[in-house]
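FIELD: query
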Amino acid sequence: MHSFTYAGNPIACAGASAVLKYIVDKDLISRSEKTGKIFLEKLKDGLGDLEIVSDIRGIGLLIGIEFSKDKERGEPFESDFNVCGKVTKYCFEHNLIVASGISGTVDGIKGDALQLSPPFVIEEEDMDFAVATLRDAILDVINSIK
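FIELD: result
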């Protein structure tokens, strides 16, 4: 039976099987829990003092950074300000690829949260580069506000 062009492709299945074997053999799930905690602390230390960063949260290597124009009250930026888009663009131009995040995290329209989901094999030097680049990107956004 034919259902999808690439469904059941033996080469794709072999590749997927090899990836799963590597994840299990290298214990990458446990590793991601440990490295996620390290990365989260580095992000909190490196970005937590910035006036528009209202929350940094995560589980394992799935991390979110919430932006607010009023950090204390958690008041979101107007949706057309596009904080995540600006941070993402800056990062991309400086060799760091991050997902532009989720809009509407406060009320379905307003609110910006950046998503970070680095590879399971991330090293501390990569984390340090990401924190430094994100800090510069967020400072760039802050300077554009003033």
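FIELD: remark
The first strand starts at residue 53 and ends at 59.
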